[in-house]
Amino acid sequence: MNRLLSISGTLLCLTCAATRAERLPAASTNKPAATTPQRLVALGPSLTRQLYLLGATNLLVGITTYCPQPDGAPPIERIGSVVDPNIERIVRLRPDLVMTTSLTDRRRVDGLRALGIPLAEFRAARTFDEICTQFLELGRLAGRETQAVAIVHQARSAVESLRFKDGAGVARTRVFIQIGARPLVTAGPDSFLNDLIEMAGGDNIAKDAAFSAYSLEAVLAANPECILIVTMGLAGPDERDTWRRYDNLAAATSNRIYLIASDLVCSPTPASFVEALALVAGMLHPK
Fold first, then answer.
1. What count of Cα atoms within 13 Å lies in the side-chain half-sphere of residue 171?
2. How far is CA 105 from CA 10, 86, 120, 253, in A?
3. What span, in angstroms and rounded, lies between the C-alpha atoms of 287 and 284?
4. Could you write out the DSSP letters of every residue in 230-247?
5. Handedness of CA 175, 181, 185, 191 (dihedral sign)
6. Cα torsion angle, 216, 243, 228, 235, sign
7. SS (H, E, C) 252-285
């Protein structure tokens, strides 16, 4: 069971470390909406969380197995997994718009398109700027553009106040972030988690890695001063204990191995990025 949880969590957290080379628009639609949609289906936790943040919970009629259910709200129908949503369930919900992610099986996307269901396709955001750009587009599609603009403005201001300032006499902290265990998976240069680390005053040891998979030997050779473990699908305390066994590892000897809840970083919104930045900045530079 633990092995299955690890695989499932790693699959979802790969959205945090997406390394697709092509530069795609924040979202692409197959049919322009003449009016604001009133029945939305979100095929990804990040999309669902963003709609909640926009106050558009009442528009959601379908979400995936991995999407959170808002407290106090009527249950929203589950339509399957992020990768393999159930087309029949979606059709029965009569959505005005289905929002998909880059993890959604292309056959399912093509099937929805063939049925004439309006789609908006969002790929995994790779930077804080892309998180904001996609959020603005999602706000426009959901008829919450004013709210989206205000939230993004507030988030950008907060990020600027929290951002690490080089040249202030404080050195950056060498960091390794773990988002998968078997195989060992991290965040490379095309991940918003790299932005998070750098803005918090860290130096990501995998910032030049071509792939998100990483070797134990490479981590030990880089000798990070701090290790961050994202807990989705992982037994976080067990992983932390594993790293602590390496006596010559700087992060282990200084007891700077931290757990980060996956809800905070694997389904990003502008607001959650600010919250994560404040948390990580405190971990990397507690003084």
1. 4
2. 17, 11, 14, 44
3. 9
4. E-TTS-HHHHHHHHHT-T
5. negative
6. positive
7. HHCCCEEEECHHHHCCCCHHHHHHHHHHHHHHHC
In contact, 123 and 100? CB cutoff 8 Å: no
What is the pLDDT at residue 232? 67
126 CB-side CA count, 13 A: 17
What average pLDDT does this structure show over 72-93? 93
Q: Which of 234, 124, 252 is nearest to 176 (CA)?
A: 252
**Residue 20 in this model has a pLDDT that exceeds 60:** no
Q: Is the pLDDT of residue 240 over 50?
A: yes
Residues 6+ away with beta carbon under 8 Å from 53: 151, 269, 270, 271
CA distance 204 to 198: 7
C-alpha distances (whole Å) from 66 to each of 103, 173, 263 are 13, 33, 11
Cβ(238)–Cβ(185) under 8 Å?
A: no
Give the C-alpha separation, 276 to 259, whole Å: 12
CA distance 236 to 191: 21
Q: How far is CA 71 from CA 57, 84, 226, in A?
A: 11, 26, 35
Residue-wise burial string across 219-251, b where 16 or more C-beta atoms lie within 10 A, e elsewhere: beebebbbbbbbbbbbebeebbebbeeeeebbb
**Structural domains of the chain, with CATH:** 22-161 (3.40.50.1980), 166-284 (3.40.50.1980)
